[in-house]
From TrEMBL:
The chain crosses the membrane at residues 7-26, 41-66, 78-96, 102-121, 142-163, 169-187. This is DUF2179 domain-containing protein. It comes from Pelotomaculum schinkii. Residues 217-271 form the DUF2179 domain. It is a multi-pass membrane protein. It comes from the Bacteria. It is found in: Cell membrane. GO terms for cellular component: plasma membrane. InterPro entries: DUF2179, N-reg_PII/ATP_PRibTrfase_C, UPF0750_membrane, YitT. Keywords: Cell membrane, Membrane, Transmembrane, Transmembrane helix. It holds the Pfam family YitT_membrane.
Length: 278
């Protein structure tokens, strides 16, 4: 059942990516990086179907990936790549083009492709493309994958600007890339709904008791030593809902006005008082 659930998640993600490409990006010549961006350029230059071009471009990437990295990509990666290629070409004739406004197309195209790719990654799949190319290139260069992805996508956007003779289209493509990347992270990590407090104080026990009594939340303490002063103290970690942030600040300040507090976003919390692990 877990495998079926993951394949269904990859399929839904692929469908959203195909909708974003067919309804917004491809009709408006927005080549937002990656293999789909190269396929969009080829579609307008030589008339190649975008889905078929995506598949053709991914075949050598998979061959190189197997050669350099071994058979670690698995069924989901192959499934995602082939399904996306088929979905893009099969759905294109039946789908409307809601807008020819380039800004709207770049925004909504980025939203759909970002949500789709996020679902694919969340369910342990891929659609091949530049993430695979970057992994292969890393075996030759040793450069960070994130940097390689940025360089590859940047090269595709630059090529699209030259091919379409439009700097504006390249800039809109960058907007799509940023939205896509942000939404991929949101889908995988979740929107921040909790806050983590790191509290350094001379009165950690009193603060921990006040948190338990005032918020019915727990805290974890571990020993630490200040580098400058050499003083040994305990650091408290407590995770609370957004609505409880102000109250926790008041509790800490009420016990120790000199406490050092670090507040950070938390995207997902699994365990008692929050979400169950799934």
């Amino acid at each position: 059942m877990k495998t079926v659930y993951e394949i269904a998640g990859v399929s839904l993600g692929v469908l959203l990516v195909a909708l974003g490409l067919d309804m917004f990006l491809i009709p408006n010549k927005i080549a937002a990086g990656g293999v789909s961006g190269i396929a969009t350029i080829l579609h307008y230059l030589v008339g190649a179907p975008v889905g078929a071009a995506i598949l053709a471009l991914n075949i050598p990437l998979f061959a190189m990936g197997i050669y350099r990295l071994g058979l670690r990509f698995g069924f989901r990666s192959l499934y995602g790549t082939i399904t996306l290629s088929l979905a893009v070409d099969l759905l294109a004739p039946a789908l409307p083009v809601p807008t020819n406004d380039i800004l709207l197309a770049s925004l909504f195209g980025g939203v759909l492709t970002g949500l789709g790719m996020g679902l694919v990654f969340r369910h342990r799949g891929t659609t091949g493309g530049t993430d695979l190319a970057a992994a292969v290139l890393r075996t030759y260069t040793g450069v960070n994958i994130g940097q390689l992805l940025f360089l590859v996508d940047g090269a595709v956007v630059l090529a699209a600007g030259v091919a379409f003779r439009s700097a504006e289209l390249a800039m809109y493509a960058l907007i799509t890339i940023f939205i896509t990347a942000w939404l991929i992270d949101v889908v995988q990590e979740g929107i921040s709904y909790a806050k983590a407090f790191l509290i350094i104080s001379e009165r950690p026990d009193e603060i921990a008791e006040a948190i338990l009594a005032g918020l019915d939340r727990g805290a974890t303490a571990w020993p630490a030593q200040g580098v400058y002063t050499g003083a040994r103290r305990e650091v408290l970690l407590s995770v609370v809902d957004r609505a409880e942030v102000t109250r926790l600040k008041e509790i800490v300040h009420g016990v120790d006005p000199r406490a050092f507090v670090i507040l950070a976003d938390v995207h997902e919390v699994l365990g008692e008082g929050f979400k169950e692990y799934k």
